[in-house]
User: Fold this.
Amino acid sequence: MNKVLASAEAAVERIPDGATILMGGFGLCGIPENLIQALHARGTKNLTVISNNAGVDDFGIGILLKARQVTKMISTYVGENKEFERQVLAGQLEVELVPQGTFSERIRAAGAGIGGFFTPTGYGTLVSEGKETRVLDGRPQVLELPLRGDFAFVRAWKGDRVGNLVYRRTARNFNPIMATAAAVTFAEVEHLVAPGQIDPDHVVTPGIFVTHVVQGVRYEKRIERRILREDDPRAGVQRTE
Amino acid sequence: MDIRERIAKRVTRELKDGDYVNLGIGLPTLVASHVPPGIQITLHSENGMLGVGPYPLESEVDPDLINAGKETITETPGCSYFSSADSFAMVRGGHIDLTVLGALQVDEQGNLANWTIPGKMLKGMGGAMDLVAGAKRVIIAMEHTTRDGGHKIVKHCTLPVTGLRVVNMIVTEMAVIDVTDAGLVLREVAADSGVEAVRAATGAELVVPAHVGTFS
Assistant:
């Protein structure tokens, strides 16, 4: 078995206009940079993107928004992207905001074959409007339904050609659950290794969840808020925003 | 002392040794730098980490290592990483002892509004709704009034709420207030303030017990 595709370009050419795509990452950390750039270059349109954030104006999902390739975003926090806000206020972009724990559990549910679940999160807020509620364990709870994609873009630190994945630090975030929740999952990996080179005890995403593996070729890994300790004599506290 | 530092410092008196704590973005983050000696807490970051360390030195900066505020951070010995689903199982499942969050409004019932101002602020709720629903204790750390002196502690929240009856305590530069079934109880007043000043700056009924402590 060999799930490796030649390039990110070879992956995104399988994606039609109008597709729903799950994209891993928290802020700009752990985002599938190469797949996003390839999708931008290809110009695929009318996309629904399910991702925690919307990138920044000129990086990550922000470049897809700027090129007007996205018609709907399902996210938890989008405060970092002015172009996003402009398009929503102009009625050009639909947005669904979901509490982060409900967002991750809806994705997990989709991948795990769960038809829906009740959660106390969001009860009595705008989020629960129009949804079934029930008192369970003495607490009012809200019915939430699975969130799945036609495709998933995930980014891993290491992967082998049968699709086993390992993540690094907080770049893990939504990637493992998104890998489970799409009809077709593309994993871009920083390091492509031979089967057996990842200790089986350390595999986080088993290969069954991964359709294709792509070796990432360039990583900018942009940092949104570079904050340094004050006892560093060279810098003090500095921000790049 | 800067009033934000004063608020953060007062919040640290609520920490217990061994607590798992989630700090919200902004003022609540300052709590981490004032943890008193003898108390060890483990910081949870909802993007998938337990055991968050201080900000890095230039040489330690790692783009794969950030907190939920998207700031660069470091590890502590014994830290761990996990997916967002596991992270919110910790939150929703009642495993987090304390969360400290900011607020736009808090009302007499402990209802909290801190995620949106209709027509003005479109950012999203992030993990705030899950944190207030799941953490064992919710402390609001905020300035007592808005920049133009408007009330933030109110009778009823007028902004869209983040959660109903979720706040346990409010710490501001002027006062420490417990949210109880009997209403908002004034526990402490800042050394440079007074009960009447706190009353005037508060848009809700305050229960003032016979003994009110002070803090600075």
Notes: The longest strand of chain A covers residues 149-160. Confidence is low (pLDDT under 50) at residues 232-241 of chain A. DSSP finds six helices and twelve strands in chain A. The helical segments of chain A are 8-12, 33-42, 61-66, 82-89, 100-112, 175-180.
